[in-house]
Structures are given as structure tokens and as C-alpha cells.
Amino acid sequence: MSETPLTPEQIQQAEARAAREGWLHRTLVAFDQFWNVTACAGLPDETISAHTRRVVDDPEAKHKLLAKVLNHMLDVVQPDHGALAEAGDEQRAETVEKTEEGALGISPGYNSNE
């Protein structure tokens, strides 16, 4: 099982790939996110793969054994699958954030907590 963090170059490649996702892939990601929230008690807009990787990396998480097994199975199909999923989730979140900032007329980087 690969638990090595991605390099900055690998993260950039994964984010670039996520930024080019087509309609079908985005629809499948939305379905994945739906099941992550409803069946896995995951965060909104997080895929099951990213959630699983986050649980594996969290020393205090529940269901760690199940997450490790699932993460390992996914790594067999695609090395570093969980970490790549986290990078893809990050890219999709950035796209949504930029879209919403534009719709609200907020300048990029605006922080409502300041």
C-alpha cells in the first residue's frame, strides 16, 4: 500500500487532470460524493477515495482497518489512488470557490474571517 505523500509535481498533475474532467466524469464524482456523505458520514464535496485516505492518515479515526483495506484495494487499481483523489477534490473545490467568488463579486482571496 502506498502511503507516501505525493510530490508537488504529482499534485499539480492530478489537479490539472481534475480541471479537465468532462460531464460524465463530473457526474460520477457527484454520485461518489453523494454516497460519501450519506453512507460514509464524509464531508460534503469529498469523494469516498479521498475520505478513505484521510481516515488512513488520521491516527484517531474510527474504522481505520476498513479504510486501510479499501485504500490498499484502490492502490492496486491505481497507485496512490487516495492521494490523487484528495488532489482532485482540492481542484474541484478551488473551481467552485472561484465560480462563487465571481458570482458574488468578491475579489479572489477574500477572507470573510478577517
Characterise the protein shown here.
The structure is a single chain. By secondary structure, the protein is an all-alpha fold. The chain has one domain. It contains 5 helices and no strands. The protein has helices spanning 8-19, 23-40, 48-57, 64-77, 81-104. Helix 1 (8-19) crosses helix 5, helix 3 crosses helix 4 (64-77) and helix 3 packs across helix 5 (81-104). The mean pLDDT is 90.
Main features:
114 residues, mainly alpha
Low-confidence stretches: none
Structural class: mainly alpha
- Termini separation comes to 41 Å
Q: What does the main sheet amount to? A: none
Entry summary:
The protein is mainly α and 114 residues long. The protein has helices spanning 8-19, 23-40, 48-57, 64-77, 81-104. The protein has one domain (8-101).
Strand and helix map with partners:
Elements: H1 8-19, H2 23-40, H3 48-57, H4 64-77, H5 81-104
Helix pairs in contact: 1-5, 3-4, 3-5
